[in-house]
């Protein structure tokens, strides 16, 4: 039976799968070959397109030798479970896959191509994802948390999965989410917060049926379900006196708990664990290493083919700000590099892309280049915690692409080293536009496509998103959207924390400027600005030694302020306000100039958006326009606070005599 396309609740935006995106697929004679649940998903999609736009779809070729415009079929080709090939000859476009997921990805490929999929003739192309795991982590709480709310760092309403302290009863919206994810290539979702509070801990045991219900609706879209678990579960849920990973009773408890999980969800993906991190329990309490902790869970999952994603976000969050010897940036490398080679084959170490925490600009984590014998997953943050909280436009494609293309050593890029996959903290919620800011949908889409192909040009992905989301857009609209999004990350960087210094945000919620908000805090996030200069000395010669965690040539390049790239200068060095950048400007003048420029760029983007009012549905246009007002207000606040702060510290006036307070 073909699987019906999910019915979106009234008022919910179809995002990058509006019906019109299927126009080219719809008007055809289509043959679908093969069987299996995902083939039914494919059939349902084509049938719906035909219902809207004409054409018809059959499952068995007619004996009379009828011809077809589109043939989608499972074939003998060995393209893995997710790959597909396509070609066009003699008026027929053929998509062949070895597995159901590949066929579904092939169909969405045809949707992206639109009319071009049915024009002329073209030779066979094969498509396979570069990374096997392309995952979203939801920081969703089952029960509303008194400080963090329903979704920790969520800026898009409530959770898609949970409401009123339990799994939603109606999961049609989750099904629609699974469909959107499949269309951009995402194949795994962790459905609860990495900070596992007590209610969430129970999902693993007595509430696993709620997770199973979610897994059931994601499965037809090839999306596997994962669960964040508490390292202390044997104590909290099992009543054992210890969670020591080498204790036999603890290991048995995990073995049995995991067996039951697989009873409920046979294709369960595995566990996500935040251990010994920001107060979460972990193996350190028992004098055990993180490899011992991770391997215990890996052993429980191994018989069922599951994976443990063990997060490397381990650092001292109770640091004394007076202590200049401790450097949070060093922590992940210092903790984990000695363990390289000790992790089980189904244990993946999940590393944030930068050494700190998803700032608008950080160097690429040195850990990613330093554990060749460990499966690594790289984690990015689609939810815009530090990048404007979905009130500001900040398209992160270029940042992620820079990270993925970075080479610690010539042999391999980050995208190639991420053998354990690419993971993003999701930015989606139950908001009618999914992501709060309608343009933030582009981040979710771009993430999926870059996870499929880390060396893709992000600008092409952006245009793909525009083409799908606004299928009938005249050029003025697509150009306007492209202009609004393309440079928005660099714009955001300009009016916020300069030259890689980061962290000048309001503590707690992390929105808006507060230059000294974290300066005397225990979080290890300082800028050390005084009357003479600013920045953190992380050199080997005179600083914390962090620069030495990189291989050559980076260690040498970052070591000296003369060779360190401008955009990371204050991350690696403490320099005077008069220090001359490679750009030829003094640091202080760079701060003034970029802050004025950043605001001017937001004003321009707002103007461009206002000019598109006649081409965008009123609801979407108004939502974005309203957010531009807030972005501009906030950007001006950033500009004026940052500029005034540094003017007051340094006493150096703006060369161009602009207003500083
Ligand atoms: C950040 C974020 C937290 C989150 C943490 C994590 O510090 O502010 O809310 O829990 O990252 O990645 O675990």
TrEMBL record:
GO cellular component, one term: extracellular region
Protein name: Xylan alpha-(1->2)-glucuronosidase
Origin organism lineage: Bacteria, Bacillati, Actinomycetota, Actinomycetes, Kitasatosporales
Pfam families per UniProt: Glyco_hydro_67C, Glyco_hydro_67M
Catalytic residues (positions): 278 (proton donor), 357 (proton acceptor), 385 (proton acceptor)
The entry's keywords: Glycosidase, Hydrolase
Domain (Glycosyl hydrolase family 67 C-terminal) ranges: 435-658
Organism: Streptomyces chartreusis NRRL 3882
Entry's Gene Ontology BP terms: xylan catabolic process
């Amino acid at each position: 039976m073909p699987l019906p396309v999910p019915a979106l609740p009234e008022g919910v935006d179809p995002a990058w799968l509006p019906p019109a995106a299927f126009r080219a697929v719809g008007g055809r004679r289509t043959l679908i070959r093969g069987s299996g649940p995902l083939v039914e998903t494919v059939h349902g999609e084509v049938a719906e397109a035909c219902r809207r736009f004409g054409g018809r779809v059959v499952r068995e070729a007619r004996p009379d030798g009828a011809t077809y415009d589109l043939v989608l079929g499972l074939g003998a080709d060995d393209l893995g479970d997710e790959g597909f090939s396509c070609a066009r000859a003699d008026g027929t476009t053929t998509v062949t896959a070895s597995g159901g997921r590949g066929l579904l990805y092939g169909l969405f490929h045809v949707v992206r191509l639109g009319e071009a999929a049915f024009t002329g003739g073209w030779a066979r192309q094969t498509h396979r994802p570069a990374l096997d795991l392309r995952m979203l982590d939801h920081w969703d709480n089952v029960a509303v948390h008194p400080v963090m709310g329903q979704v920790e760092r969520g800026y898009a309403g409530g959770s898609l999965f949970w409401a009123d302290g339990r799994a939603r009863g109606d999961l049609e919206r989750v099904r629609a989410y699974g469909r959107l994810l499949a269309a951009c290539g995402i194949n795994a979702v962790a459905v609860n917060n990495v900070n596992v509070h007590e209610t969430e801990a129970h999902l693993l045991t007595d509430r696993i049926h709620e997770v199973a219900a979610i897994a059931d609706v994601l499965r037809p879209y090839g999306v596997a379900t994962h669960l964040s678990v508490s390292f202390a579960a044997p104590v909290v849920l099992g009543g054992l006196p210890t969670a020591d990973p080498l204790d036999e009773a603890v290991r048995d408890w995990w073995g049995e708990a995991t067996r039951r999980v697989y009873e409920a969800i046979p294709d369960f993906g595995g566990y996500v664990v935040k251990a010994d991190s920001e107060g979460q329990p972990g193996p350190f309490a028992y004098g055990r290493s993180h490899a011992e902790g991770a391997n215990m869970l890996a052993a429980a999952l191994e018989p069922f083919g599951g994976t443990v994603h063990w997060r490397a976000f381990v650092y001292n969050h109770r640091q004394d700000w007076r202590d200049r010897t401790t450097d949070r940036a060093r922590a992940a490398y210092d903790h984990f590099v000695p363990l390289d080679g000790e992790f089980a084959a189904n244990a993946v170490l999940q590393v944030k892309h930068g050494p700190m925490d998803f700032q608008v600009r950080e160097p690429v984590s040195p850990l990613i280049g330093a554990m060749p014998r460990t499966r690594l997953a790289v984690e990015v943050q689609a939810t815009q915690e530090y990048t404007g909280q979905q009130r500001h436009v900040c398209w992160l494609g270029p940042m992620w692409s820079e990270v993925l293309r970075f080479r610690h050593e010539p042999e391999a890029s980050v995208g190639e080293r991420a053998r354990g996959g690419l993971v993003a903290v999701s930015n989606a919620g139950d908001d009618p536009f999914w992501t709060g800011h309608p343009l933030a949908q582009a981040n979710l889409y771009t993430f999926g496509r870059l996870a499929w192909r880390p060396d893709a040009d992000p600008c092409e992905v952006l245009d793909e998103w525009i083409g799908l989301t606004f299928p009938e857009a005249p050029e003025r609209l697509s150009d306007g959207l492209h202009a609004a999004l393309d440079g928005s990350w660099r714009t955001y960087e300009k009016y916020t924390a300069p030259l890689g210094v980061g962290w000048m945000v309001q503590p707690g919620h992390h929105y808006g400027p507060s230059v000294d908000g974290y300066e005397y805090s225990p979080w290890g996030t300082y800028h050390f600005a005084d009357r003479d200069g600013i920045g953190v000395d992380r050199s080997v010669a005179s600083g914390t030694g962090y620069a030495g965690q990189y291989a050559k040539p980076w260690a040498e390049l970052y070591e000296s302020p003369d060779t360190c790239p401008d955009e990371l200068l204050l991350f690696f060095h403490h320099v005077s306000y008069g220090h001359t950048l490679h750009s030829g400007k003094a640091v202080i003048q760079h701060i003034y100039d970029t802050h004025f420029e950043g605001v001017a760029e937001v004003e321009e983007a707002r103007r461009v958006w206002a000019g598109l009012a006649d081409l965008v549905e009123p609801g979407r246009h108004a939502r974005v326009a309203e957010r531009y007002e807030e972005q501009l207000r906030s950007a001006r606040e950033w500009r004026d606070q940052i500029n005034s702060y540094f003017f007051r510290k340094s006493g150096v006036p703006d060369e161009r005599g602009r207003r500083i307070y």
